[in-house]
User: Fold Probable nitronate monooxygenase from Tumebacillus amylolyticus.
Amino acid sequence: MKQRLLELLGVEYPIVEGGMAYIGDGLLAAAVSNAGAFGQVGSAGRTLADFEKQIQIAIESTDKPFGVNLPIGEHSDPRERVEMILKYREHLRAVSISAGNPRPFIPVFQEAGLPVMVLISTAMHAQKAEQAGADILIAEGFEAGGHNGPSEVTTFALIPQVASVVNVPVIAAGGVADGRGLAAALALGAAGVQLGTRLVATVESPAHENYKQALVTARAEDTTMIERSIGHVTRVLKSSYVNEVLTFERTQPSPEELYPYVKGEKNGIAALQGDMEHGFAYGGQGVGLIHSIPTTEQVIRTMVEEARQTLQNLPTL
Ligand SMILES: Cc1cc2nc3c(=O)[nH]c(=O)nc-3n(C[C@H](O)[C@H](O)[C@H](O)COP(=O)(O)O)c2cc1C
Assistant:
């Protein structure tokens, strides 16, 4: 399965940059791909024009394969994004779909020669996505930064359960931030890993310095969930702003009342402008493993070396 994943994505290492709202720009995707992993330009948090521009920047900045992430539920009309992605089919290696029903979109991309990765968070949805034709599944556990699946299944439990019931490569996401996580994911039956939070705190990431420093300082227990009151689960770094949101949520606001506090722009304010008092920033529980702001290349190289070492040093039973 690992070999199949490497072939589908055309990469050296089984490591994927997760789609990241505001953060996943063309330069970061290119840096990840140049390091031998799989970079992805994210659609969320961008206008259509900026999404296209970031794809062009990635094309100019790497000769290595990279892809795009399309969270379909984030866009009022995902079809115009789909058409734009298809325009760049020759330059893209794969598409990942999240936040919505992937079924109508899978054949569209595959007919254009693009393998499709589908983000799921339960074994049942993994089977459905496989039946719908997904080439790769990204199984994301509840530790992950950003929007999580409502079932709240954690990575350690999720990966083997998904790997047991599907016949396509499974990528483990959520809580992986070093080589031990990569080795563990392989042991659980994954073919590779997807990183989010770890890549935010890198030199090439466009995240504001305040956000990067907050990730370096935070421990695993410094993340929490917002939007639960309206049936969503979104993992963010704790902050005074997030406290305000949670206090408001205790008054059981309607989704329309809560929206101004949790809309994407509020994420951009913290993530790009660094104003952590007036916006929220995504962060997963693996944040406790982040102690510095290395280059993307260092993250990938160290992770691969550490995973190899971990697998070699495992005690026998
Ligand atoms: C800053 C940030 C933004 C994210 N935005 C998206 C997104 O737009 N689309 C998506 O499918 N996943 C998104 N995610 C989830 C990641 O792609 C990835 O699956 C997750 O971060 C993995 O867990 P980790 O944060 O523990 O590494 C985001 C995560 C972070 C940290």
